[in-house]
Amino acid sequence: MSTVVTGGEKFETRVPLLIIGAGAAGLCAALAAKEAGVEPVVIERDAVPAGSTALSAGLIPAAGTRFQRAKGISDSPQILATDIQRKAHREADPAVADAVARNSGPLIEWLADRYGFPFDVVDNFNYPGHAALRMHGLPSRTGLELIDRLRSAAEANDIVILTERAAERLVIGAAGKIEGVEMARGDGAVERLGCDALLLACNGYGGNPALVRRFIPEMADALYFGHPGNRGDAVIWGEALGAKLDHLGAYQGHGSVATPHNILITWAVIMQGGLQINSEGRRFCDETRGYSEQAADVLRQPGKVAWNIFDERIAAVARQFEDFQNAERAGAIVRADSIAALARALRLPEATLRDDWTEAESLKARSGRDRFGRQFAPEQRCESPFCAVKVTGALFHTQGGLAIDARGRVKRNDGTVFRNLFAAGGAAAGVSGSTAAGYLSGNGLLTATVLGRLAGHAAAEQVMQSAKG
Ligand SMILES: Cc1cc2nc3c(=O)[nH]c(=O)nc-3n(C[C@H](O)[C@H](O)[C@H](O)COP(=O)(O)OP(=O)(O)OC[C@H]3O[C@@H](n4cnc5c(N)ncnc54)[C@H](O)[C@@H]3O)c2cc1C
402: closest CA among 385, 389, 417, 384? Predict the structure, then answer.
């Protein structure tokens, strides 16, 4: 049970910086703190660090990197900040959005140059809302590779990660200063650890059905596709502490999870020219607005499902993702030589599917725009053999959380900041504004990694300052 208690007693063991959560945010924070000269200790509920980071595609948007320049891609932090704010309907905190955009390129180059992460830029399709090709990924295009490399970097730098430790209670001293944490070990024993500064990197509340129902009722019954251990502790502690909580209704959804296989089907299949069709054989929206808002749209269709329809050319692009290869191996991708045969194989109404498909193909040929506002282009034309996959909408992670400044310092309701409390990643409010539609692809790992690094550095500075004074 996560709570906050007031305690004057001393802790037997004290560490300079305690980080709760060993996902992307916690491990980037730990690396940054260590570089700044402070020994962090990371605690993690699971036996092996994974988090939602391991479930992701591991793609991080970053602007102005040498990886982009090498491929002749022109981009800048200003353009990224503009893209973030356009998608977020200008609801993102400008100081935080500017900071993540400005520090995104340095983050990628830091991980590449100092820790040897072999990033490259995805250059054969773009995600909705990005004005430039800027998704940086590792060879397998998996978050598992990202978290494994972060954990190895932490271990190589002698960073202590205490696994099978679930933080349950924050202990608060005079004037609201965080004194330490009570945590439950895997064997049920309770341990107490004092700290000079605390950094919350325990993600959001997607794994807490009561909080999802309270803050995001439209996704209360949806499949949760994130890490089950993200139970909203940061929000629960924040409420008890009088911290400011922002945009609690915001989330990253995804309208393309293969069902019943539960495998993520990359949105590349749509951006390359694929369509989404419901069980009546009809399209129902402009699929290219974004995959996040598409989750609720798919869930509003009969049976809460849709079919992505595309072709073999698009399947070849999607195959760079291990998830897509897994979906093929699992038999989730259905193939047919004609749209009529595909309709029969999927048991969809043949005439309506053929009408919507033919209309879209003719719009592609003349660069037309459809009744939903989707803009098509000739290079998106599809040809036999055709492919299809049955998908549903899912909740990936929540985007609301503790309001922070541009250095990850947690804000109180009155606008002041806590002296020694920091947050990053899904524990903090993101840069997606107040709705699912405000989520620009990559906002999750962007804020986890960049703000993790900034918050880790700021927390280390705070520890060193308080040691001096
Ligand atoms: C299927 C999927 C695909 C995605 N793809 C992308 C993508 O390609 N690009 C992108 O930008 N974003 C993507 N995201 C979102 C991205 O994964 C998250 O935004 C990001 O991983 C959050 O990082 P984090 O460090 O905040 O949290 P996590 O990686 O979830 O780490 C939090 C850690 O805290 C631990 N923890 C929680 N509570 C406690 C506690 N009380 N005590 C101790 N430990 C605790 C958890 O066990 C967990 O290990 C995707 C998400 C999903 C689910």
Answer: 417
3-class DSSP state of 17: strand
Calpha distance 164→166 (Å, rounded): 6
Count CA atoms within 13 Å of residue 242 on its CB side. 11
Q: Give the predicted TM-score (pTM) of the model.
A: 0.94
The alpha carbon of 379 and the centre of ligand 1 are apart by a number of angstroms equal to: 35
Ligand 1 mutation pick, 203, 224, 252, 292, max ligand atoms within 8 A of CB:
203
Write the burial class of residue 153 (CB in 10 Å: 0-12 exposed, 13-18 middle, 19+ buried). Answer: buried
Indicate if ligand 1 lies below 6 Å from the C-beta of 241: no
- Per-residue tokens: 258: 């293969």
Q: Does the beta carbon of 225 lie inside 6 Å of ligand 1?
A: yes
Q: In whole angstroms, what is the distance from residue 235 CA to residue 207 CA? A: 12
pLDDT in tens, 134-158: 999 999 999 999 999 999 999 999 9
**How remote is the C-alpha of 147 from its chain's centroid?**
13
